[in-house]
TrEMBL record:
Keywords: Cell membrane, Disulfide bond, G-protein coupled receptor, Glycoprotein, Membrane, Olfaction, Receptor, Sensory transduction, Transducer, Transmembrane, Transmembrane helix. PROSITE patterns: G_PROTEIN_RECEP_F1_2. The keyword Nuclease does not apply. This is G-protein coupled receptors family 1 profile domain-containing protein. GO terms for molecular function: G protein-coupled receptor activity; olfactory receptor activity. The keyword Ribonucleoprotein does not apply.
Length: 315
């Protein structure tokens, strides 16, 4: 009756594999179209971000600039973020009902949440960089030296990957009995908690409390930083400097808006699930990284020039 499980005792059965339902309700033509669309977005995201990482590593000038050190780390994070979920998603679109093992599901769950938290921290770090560059230009070379920037980037990675260890551990210890189907295309808190056959208020509350904390703390920091930046820019004489500052700020705020707007639906509101939750998750899992590449990275004139030099083999 429960083929993806193992017997623990006479009356207890534990799930050893899950089936991600994903978009199983869609017909074959729709799934084929979605698979093609996601494949294109995934390929574009990988190619674009790999180019940015390679350019930052190869260009000695960019390696000394804090903004591009953070951007290189952010691009690598985007590559890892989409790779955590999209390959399995594409596989499920092509072959319905192919199970994912219990350990693999929780590895995906952990890395998905950890990189989401890391992304929030990097967006806050980028806002800090812009604030210091525009509001404290004389102190900026000292406060954001390459060494300081690497310490900041390392802190984002470390804190992000430690942030959700407790709730992931608590959820992994729940009893899932014979409920081996998850109504999602990714191992996520809502479907996993829904599949548990025992109440788990502690695990649920810790997960959504930590999600709310990292989301609201970083977005308030970003908004406060850019509030001060905009005030400082408005005091400058109208001209190229003011336009450049506003251009940088608007690009970053567009990335922040689309990521936080979609992420809040699922990770601040525990009731978010079902079809609407899938659409939101799909957007910030696949759509946001691709849009980030177009908005924040490839619109950058200096990055495009460095990328051109790298591709042409110039120094």
């Amino acid at each position: 009756k429960c083929p993806l499980s193992s017997v623990l005792s006479n009356d207890s059965i534990a799930v050893t594999k899950f089936i991600l339902l994903g978009f199983a309700s869609m017909d074959w033509e729709s799934r084929t179209f979605l698979c093609s669309l996601l494949s294109s977005a995934y390929t574009g995201t990988l190619a674009g971000n790999l180019c940015i990482v390679w350019t930052v590593l190869r260009d000695s000038h960019l390696q000394c600039l804090p903004m591009y050190i953070l951007l290189g780390n952010f691009s690598w994070l985007e590559i890892s973020y989409v790779t955590t979920t999209v390959p399995k998603m594409l596989s499920d679109l092509v072959s319905l009902g192919f199970p994912i093992s219990f350990p693999a599901c929780f590895m995906q769950f952990y890395f998905f949440l950890a990189m989401g938290a890391t992304k929030c921290l990097f967006l806050a770090a980028m806002a800090l960089d812009r604030y210091l560059a525009i509001c404290h230009p004389l102190c900026y070379p000292v406060l954001m030296s390459p060494h300081s920037c690497w310490v900041l980037a390392s802190s984002c990675w470390l804190i992000g990957f430690l942030w959700f260890i407790v709730p992931v551990t608590l959820i992994s210890q729940l009893s899932f009995c014979c409920t081996n189907t998850l109504d999602h295309f990714v191992c996520d808190p809502a479907p996993l908690l829904a599949a548990s056959c025992t109440p788990a208020p502690q695990a649920e509350h810790s997960c959504y409390a930590l999600s709310s904390l990292v989301i609201f703390a970083t977005i308030l920091f970003i908004l406060a930083s850019y509030g001060l930046v905009i005030r400082a820019v408005l005091r400058l004489p109208a001209g190229a400097g003011q336009h450049k500052a506003f251009s940088t700020c608007s690009s970053h705020l567009a990335v922040v808006g689309q990521f936080y707007g979609s992420g809040m639906v699922n990770y601040v509101n525990p009731a978010a699930s079902g079809a609407s939750g899938k659409v939101e998750t799909l957007f910030y899992t696949v759509g946001t990284p691709l849009l980030n590449l177009l908005i924040y990275s490839l619109r950058n004139k200096e990055m495009k020039q460095a990328l051109k030099r790298t591709l042409l083999g110039e120094q």
